[in-house]
Design goal:
The chain is an alpha+beta fold. The protein is built from 5 helices and 6 strands; from the N terminus they run αβββαβββααα.
Length: 153
């Protein structure tokens, strides 16, 4: 990082949500992360803020602890309607079949989205979807809505 807090683009500046270098986190066998994770897990981070309720995500320059963002949401708002959250990929997830994320598999089995650049996501080096399915999962990721629901009450 340079003194302004902005990344210089060097590999050492890319930080995994756990605070470790992203490359080292993946190489060291650290936990894989789910880009459609829980808002309330202790390690949860915000990757992006949605543009309006259920809108497309605008990725943050760096992941932020979810607990900080949750405190600022309007009462009664489902966090995943406004935030793109990541947490550890867990073996008891309903989208798991053994070591496979079936959600990532379904994303890459669907027709691919129009050719788009990969989103600027800090999770990629330790992302379960990336590890399992590569660029097609990343291209589809911004369109995934973890949960759509009716109007907030």
């Amino acid at each position: 990082m340079n003194p302004s807090g902005r990344s210089t683009g060097r590999a050492a500046d890319r930080v995994a949500p756990s605070g470790r270098s992203a490359g080292r986190a993946a190489a060291a066998g650290g936990p894989l992360w789910c880009p459609s994770g829980s808002a309330y897990a202790a390690e949860s981070v915000v990757l992006a803020v949605r543009e309006g309720l259920d809108g497309p995500p605008a990725y943050l320059p760096a992941p932020r602890p979810a607990a900080e963002a949750l405190a600022g949401l309007p009462p009664g708002t489902e966090p995943r309607r406004l935030l793109r959250l990541a947490s550890h990929c867990v073996p008891y997830c309903l989208n798991r079949a053994g070591d496979t994320c079936t959600l990532a598999a379904r994303l890459t089995a669907a027709p691919p989205p129009p050719a788009t650049p990969l989103p600027a996501c800090h999770l990629r080096p330790s992302c379960k979807w990336w590890t399992q399915s590569g660029p097609p999962a990343c291209q589809a990721c911004p369109g995934v809505a973890t949960r759509r629901s009716g109007p907030d009450r």
